[in-house]
Amino acid sequence: MVRHVIAPAADLPSGERLVAEVAGRKVVIFNLDGEYFGLFNRCPHQGGDLCLGRTTGLVEAGDSPGQYNYSRRGEILRCPWHGWEFDIRTGKSRAEPGRIRAKTYDVDVKSGSELFDGPYQAETVLVSIEDDYIVVEA
Amino acid sequence: MNVELPARPKPESTINRPVIADCDIHPCLARPADILPYLPKRWQEHAMTYGMLPRHGYQSGPAYPKGQPDAARLDSWPPDGRPGSDLSFMQAQHLDANRVELGIMTVIAPAAGAAQNLDYSAALARALNEWQVAEWTSKDTRLKASIVVPYEDAAAAAVEIDHWAGHDAFVQVLLLSRTAEPLGQRRYWPIYEAAQRAGLPIGVHAFGYGGYPVTAGGWPSYYIEEMVGHSQCCQALLTSMVIEGVFERFPGTRMVLIEAGLAWLPSLCWRLDKHWSRLRDETPHLRRAPSNYIRDHVWLTTQPMEEPEKRKHFHDIVEWIGIDRLLFATDYPHWDFDDPLWAVPVKLDDGARQALFLDNAKALYGRR
Ligand code: FES
Q1: Which of A124, B6, B86, B190 has a Cα-to-Cα distance from B65 of 20 to 30 A?
Q2: Which domains does chain B show, CATH number per domain?
Q3: Residue B64: pLDDT band by 50, 70, 90 thresholds?
Q4: Is residue A119 reached through a cis peptide bond, with omega within 30 degrees of 0 on the bond before it?
Q5: Closest ligand 1 atom to the C-alpha of A83?
C-alpha cells in the first residue's frame, strides 16, 4: 500500500468529483459533504467510464403501494452506459449488491504538515504545510 | 515530496481485443435538417412545412421515454450533434477502439418506412440511402449500409431495392418490426421477392411504428415493458413469415432479427412444430415443419442477450439456435450497447467465438 497525494482538498468542493491516476489506474474521487470516497473508473458490469455517470439518489418503494422514498441524494452514481446504480460509499450495485460492486479506494484528507512525514507519492502535486490534501491508498 | 513516476501504459489497451463484425450500428442525422440536401425540392418543402407523421396516433416520437437521453450512452455525444452523427467520433470511440472490421449500419431514425404519407416515405428512404453512401460508407470502407425502404408500400420498396441492388455499399434490406400487418402477409411479398433478386438479406430491427400497442396485451405503463415486448413482437412477425409460406415462396430469403433478443426462439420453434403436427393441413403450402424454415432462413443479432441465472444454460440456448445463426452486435451508440469483450456471459471456445464475432457476418453479408 502506498499513499498517493492527489490534489489540494480545495480543488474538490462538496458534491463534485475528480478523476486521478493512481498507480496506473483511473480513480474517481467524490466529496460527499466533506466525506471522501474513491471508485475505480471502470464499471464492473461492462467497463463504462464511471467518471462520466450522473449522480442521483435512490427511489425506492415505501411502506405501502403508491408510496415512494427518495433517499441518499447525491450518493448514487449511475453508469453512463447501462445505467446501473452504484453506492458511492461502498461501491455496491443497487441491483446485485452481493455480486457486483465497483472497486473502492480509501480516500483521506491530510494536512500538508502530516504529509511531510511520508512515505507518500505526489505525482503532480506541490505540497505546502498550510493546506489540506486528498490522499488515496493503493 | 514530489516523486516522478514513470509513465505507465494504459491498463486496457486495444491489443487484446479481437477483430469483430458489429451487425447493429446506428448512424443518425446531427440535425433533422441535414437530410434536406438529399431530398428533391418538393419534399424539402414538405419536410419543412409538415414533417413526418409516423404510423402512430397523436404523437410525434416514440411512445416511451428512453433509459438515457436520445437512448444513447452518456459518453457517446460528439462535440456537436447527436450520438451517432459524427463519423470521426464514432471511429475513435467505437470502430477503432473495438476493432470493428465490418460494421453493418441500421438507420432506424427517422423511421422513414413508418411515414404515413407513402410518397414521403419513399422520398425519405431514398434520401437516407443517398446520405448513408455520401456521409458514411464512402468515407469508411468498414461500414456497410442497409437499404431503408418504404415498407408499407411494398411496390415502392421493391423499386428502392432494385435501385441499389449490386451497389457495393449496401448489404441488406432494412425493415422495422412494428408494421401495419404481420410481416409475412402478402402485401409485403414484393419486398422479399426484390431482396431475393438482389441477393440481399432482410434485416428486421426492433422498434418502428405499427399503430398498435407495443405488447400483445395492450399499452403497458413502463419503458421496461416496451423493451421486453420486442420478443413478443418478433415472435409474431416471424411466425407470420413462416406460416404464410414466405420462405417456401422465396427460398432465397435470409432474414436477420436485429435487437430482438434470442432465447425465445427455441421455445417458439418447439411450440410451432407441436401445433403444426396437428394442424398441418390448414397450411398445406408448408412442406416442412416450421422450425425447419427457421433453421434455414433466420439469423439473430446478439444484443441484447438474455442472461440465464445459471450461466451454463446460455450454452444450451446457443446449441438450440446454432452458433452459426448468431451475429454479434453492439447497438452503438445506444444506451444498451454491448461491449464485445464483456457482453457474452460465458466463455465460448475459439471456433464459436470466431463464428459469432466475425465469420458468420462475413459469410452472410459477403457478396453472392
Ligand atoms: S458498463 Fe456500467 S452498467 Fe454496464
Answers
A1: B86
A2: 20-365 (3.20.20.140)
A3: confident
A4: yes
A5: 3
Partner-chain residue, chosen from B3, B12, B335, that has the shortest CB–CB distance to A83: B335
Determine the distance separating the centroid of ligand 1 and the alpha carbon of A112, expressed in angstroms: 37
To test the contact with chain A by mutation, choose from B10, B12, B74, B77 the residue with the greatest count of A C-beta atoms within 10 A, namely B74
Residue A123 has pLDDT above 60, yes or no: no
Q: Name the phi and psi angles at B107, rounded to 5.
A: -85, 110
A–B CB contacts, 8 A cutoff, strictly below = 57
Q: In the predicted model, what is the mean pLDDT of chain B?
A: 94
Atom of ligand 1 nearest to the CA of A50: 2
| Chain A nearest CA to B143, separation (Å) | 23
Q: Which of A21, A81, A123 best probes binding to B when mutated, by most B CB atoms within 10 angstroms?
A: A81
What gap in Å lies between CA A69 and CA A96, rounded to an integer?
Answer: 20
Q: Which atom of ligand 1 is nearest to the CA of B339?
A: 1
Rounded CA gap, A58 and A84, in Å?
Answer: 12
Give the amino acid at A76: I
CB contact under 8 A, A82 and B339: no
Model confidence at B283: pLDDT above 50: yes
Per-residue cell: B316: 444450451
Could you tell me if the ipTM is greater than 0.85? no
CA B317 – CA B262 distance, rounded (Å) = 8
Asked if the model's pLDDT at residue B5 lies above 60, the reply is no
User: What's the pTM value of the predicted model, to 2 decimals?
Assistant: 0.91
The least confident of A98-107, B63-72, B186-195, B282-291 is B63-72
Kind and range of the H or E run holding B35: none
Ordered by where they begin, the domains of chain A are 3-137 (2.102.10.10)
Residue A134 has pLDDT above 70, yes or no: yes
